[in-house]
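User: Hey, quick favor. My workstation is busy. Could you predict this chain's structure for me?
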Amino acid sequence: MPEINFPFSNKLITWYLQNKRELPWRQTKDPYRIWLSEIILQQTRVAQGLPYYETFVATYPNVYELAKAPEEDVLKLWQGLGYYSRARNLRFTANFVANELNGVFPNTYESLKKLKGVGDYTASAIASICYQEPAAVVDGNVYRVLSRVFGVATPINSTAGIKEFKLLAQTLLDEKQPGVFNQAIMEFGARYCVPQNPACEGCIFSENCMAFTSRTVSELPVKLKKLKVKKRYFNYIVLLSIDHKTRLNQRLGKGIWQNLYEFPLVETTNEVSEGDLKREPAYRNLSEEIKINSIVKYNDTPIVHKLSHQHLITTFWIVETETLHGTGIAISEIEKFPVPVLIANFLNMFTFQ
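Assistant: No problem, here it is.
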């Protein structure tokens, strides 16, 4: 572990108290609201997550209300945030706390970590902010600040790196005000020690920052290369019947977008022409089920939708038919269904006749 020879915590907390943003979850110690904010802010910037937090609190003001909510309603409210397993875990944990723990959240780091969807970071945040337990948070912002200030080049996504940074954060933690310290270091990383082009000249740590003095700011933190991104080719069949209906299917089982809705999907091994599409078994099955009057490609250039380990190269096909034989939904009802952002973006662009 690097040597600590300056008052890191004091400098950081002083900066935070003078510069912090006034955010709604900083006005409460309610573990339900802190938990909700931390789950929403995983993989999500504050600017994007704030309106979702406010909507969730307004719709489900306590853990009992969230526990009672149908999963589809929670997914619909979550729509656009991505990483939908967070929403499913959110509802599962709300149900567990409401029904198994009488609505009372666990009050220690170790017990919080046993909740579904709550890992080291979230448990540390709730325990420190709500219960003043000295548990240091480590997220992307914290990795960045600590690796640069203390010149730590251990890869942050390696087993050794995870242990080293957790120990360093725990050593630096102000045990008298752990919640304030944790919020301060996250705030500093999010607003000041940013990934690209941080304003190092005016930084409160510029005199002590190892990366600044050695001119290695752009090289830290170190991260091992990700797995190869997989390309998948999606062809969505947007069915339109003469009685103004379409069809949405629910994605079941494991994998991306579990329990969300989408148009009938034909997945291929590469980009396909109309002729190639018509030869695909999934399309042939569809054409045997309903009478297809016409098919038109909506987007000439495929839409590339990027997920963490997958790129979905997507084409929408507009298919007109006489009837959907009772399996259709009214076009006016589509907005009630939770859909992936890829589908939501299409719905915002396309005008149904």
